[in-house]
Design a protein that fits this description.
Structural class: alpha/beta
Largest sheet: 5 strands, parallel
Shape: globular
Oligomer: single chain
CATH architecture: 3-Layer(aba) Sandwich
Number of strands: 5
Radius of gyration: 16 Å
CATH superfamily: HUPs
């Protein structure tokens, strides 16, 4: 089985934990969002000036740290793939050669329901050409949290 694990800041630990004991070949995927890169670029960028820093270098270093931590937590061999682009499109493109995609809820984690998925995650769940394992980062909210 070919397992693709979509790693995103804030939810990657739950995805690694879900993949750890599954049989098959694991690929760890991180997508650098070109919109985030664009927001950080320019003379000041949308997020303000970062004195003496290279925004692309900062993003690359953060990506490297995330992937190193994920590989260590997985504690088994995995292929590591990094791409740049629109995350939802890049994830779907790589799903074409996967049997299982593991991703995490990234929206409102306080209650059950459709808003527990961010728009990109919803797009991937709705369009994935393979099986999908959707995990909660942390404990799921109680059943009484349904709006």
């Amino acid at each position: 089985m070919k397992i693709l694990v979509w790693l995103d800041e804030g939810t990657w630990e739950a995805c690694i934990d879900a993949a750890r004991d599954l049989p098959g070949d694991v690929t760890l995927l991180h997508v650098s969002d070109v919109d985030t890169e664009a927001a950080l670029s320019g003379s000041a960028g949308l997020l303000g000036r970062v004195a003496g820093a290279d925004p692309a270098g900062l993003l690359a270093a953060a990506e490297r740290r995330l992937l190193e931590a994920a590989a260590e937590r997985l504690d088994r061999h995995a292929e590591i793939v990094t791409v740049r682009g629109r995350p939802e499109h890049e994830v779907l493109a790589l799903c074409a050669s996967a049997d299982l995609l593991i991703l995490a809820r990234d929206g409102d984690r306080r209650r059950l329901g459709p808003r527990s998925l961010g728009h990109r995650t919803r797009f991937v769940v709705d369009h994935a050409p393979c099986q999908v394992l959707l995990v909660w980062p942390g404990s799921p909210p109680p059943l009484g949290s349904i709006p």
